[in-house]
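Sample A.
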Amino acid sequence: MLLWNAILPAVLGVSVLNIWQAIGILALSRLLFGGFGGGPWRGRRGGPPHWKNQWVNTESIQPGDLSIISERIDPAPGTHKIKYHSPIDDIEIIHTAHNRKGFATGAVIAAEFIKGKKGIFSMKDVLGF
């Protein structure tokens, strides 16, 4: 968190993180990248690591599925839920958009980026990652 707050706001213009946002990013990275145990080749106590093979847009109890559910629930324009399930625990992160301003801003930023360019681009190109 300290490294983020010291560098990224000045370089990329992103917001400063508070402790709860830092914990959320840590939990999300644990879900997506399997923790900090050195990679998928290293076993863990009690058996092999629980890596996810695919994202699904439904509730799933399959060991290889990572449920990322996106729903339109009125009046919210978008609710996204990421759920990690293992025999040990469940972790859920829920994002609810209160309006469409964030979606519209992202579309405008992408349109400004692609103006005058040809080819296929991803959001990594737009955001400079």
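Sample B.
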Amino acid sequence: MNDTSKSVGQGGQKPVSWINHEERQHCRFDYTAPEVLLSLSVACPEAYEHAFIVGSWVWVQFPEAPAPATRAMLSQMGFHWSSRRKAWQHPCGSPEGVGVGGDPIRRYGMQSARALIHGVAA
């Protein structure tokens, strides 16, 4: 049987489409933070509500685990999960692995995407 989908998460959850890795790579390194945020606000508004800017990266931190379809959408958009930071992170064109170490929130601060883009109080 030719299966073109995979399950994300644990038992009983609906299957989601495979990730197009070529498109994902393009999304990771060819978009700036404002472009990522605009795309996120349209394609995944439930994630946009939890988006933050940390340095030149976009982070999404949910209070609870998001639905499998939301995780798949974030991955397709170029985000990756950081278990250490408990956040979905998008490099927004910044090369990965070039960090100076330490806590990026302490170094750069963390600003709500809504506050930055819309002037809304965080």
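B remarks: The beta strands are 5-7, 15-17, 51-54, 57-60, 80-82, 87-90, 111-112. The chain has one domain: 20-118.
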